[in-house]
Amino acid sequence: MQAILALNAGSSSVKFAVYEARPSAPVLLLRGALDLHADNNRFVIKDAGGQPIRDDKAGDPESDLATTLLERIEPLLEGRKLEAVGHRIVHGGPDFAASILIDAQIIAQLDRLTPLAPLHQPACLEPARRLLSLRPQLRQVACFDTAFHRDLAPIYRRFALPLEFEAKGVRRYGFHGLSFEYVVWHCNQSGLRPDLRMVIAHLGNGCSLCAVHNGKSVNTTMSLTPLDGVMMGTRSGAVDPGALLYLQQSEGMSASEVEDMLYHKSGLLGLSGLSADMRTLLASADRRARSAVDQFCARIAEQICVMATAMNGMDVLVFTGGIGENSADIRRDVCARLAWLGVSSDDQTGHARSTPASRVDVRTIPTDEEYIIAAHTLDLTRGPREA
Ligand code: ADP
Predict the structure, then answer these.
(1) Which is the catalytic residue, given 145, 333, 361, 368?
(2) To test ligand 1's pocket by mutation, which of 205, 235, 272, 319 has the most ligand atoms within 8 angstroms of CB?
(3) Does residue 145 have an active-site annotation?
(4) Considering the entire predicted model, what is its pTM?
(5) pLDDT tens, position by position, 213-236
């Protein structure tokens, strides 16, 4: 039996999972995370049942991520050979609408999309590039966060800019596609009818919403970059484009200062002045923290309506991501703002559950982007290796 590594590399943390490559589907062996924050430099690996195998320092700061992962994971494979690595790649741009085998040329092409996801694209490409030189025989697959939204209709794909910009790739793409794909797969597995109109709220450090009908993305809140839509931990979400012009033309901010503000200093952190972490804000009695959480919930409820409008209604509302999965407070607040739509949820159990009277089926589904990465990687590497 062989093993597959699914790598979900972000700017400040890395999640990964290792699967046995069974012919029918990947089967989880190990799951882990690496926190790259200087003050919390941890490397954690757990077995498939969630029992810790190791929890220690991330190791030599000079060592690159790919080397560290191989050194720590391969001794745990019990004779299985690492056959392939799948990567979450945040931006696929106009050219990549499905997962693909990676080579040096593909990496160079994806690198050119860095300005469209400056926090994420370099972080997820770096281990792929490094593995290509360390282990040229190892097959690698790029799985795109944008690909799930490949079928957006022109009215949801275009900005209202002169048409020639769409041809230049300046259009709405959408992100968090691997998470949305997992939720849809999970719902299918549990027998939910695919023709039901589903709104998925992925609420983590990054947040976006998606309208899904018959398994396809119909509309989504993020667009060209992972900045658009609802506010997030440190990212602003949508702001008046005129405000950005004003800041540069009248307040003397440079483009990179505006970029830094929008990606790193805005959202929950910017509004609260306290933290980007929802747990910290919910535990705080600070007035600005409460107001930031209030605004977060209000804008999510608002965008749920926007998503529902693209499907002429909503039958199912799913919460996922670190906040969506774990915070009954946030789910209750968002659902209460949608009571006029017939959303009624009983969140006493720690999982959103609609009441019998609810017109919308409200669910909490823990996401698993790594499973989708592994499944795509298995699909693309199952056949014989090309000569
Ligand atoms: P990422 O987008 O980086 O994958 P996560 O999906 O792990 O991030 O989400 C991180 C967010 O989830 C943080 O804001 C964190 O505070 C929040 N979170 C995690 N657990 C809870 C909880 N029990 N209550 C409220 N928020 C939580």
Answers:
(1) 145
(2) 205
(3) yes
(4) 0.96
(5) 999 999 999 999 999 999 999 999
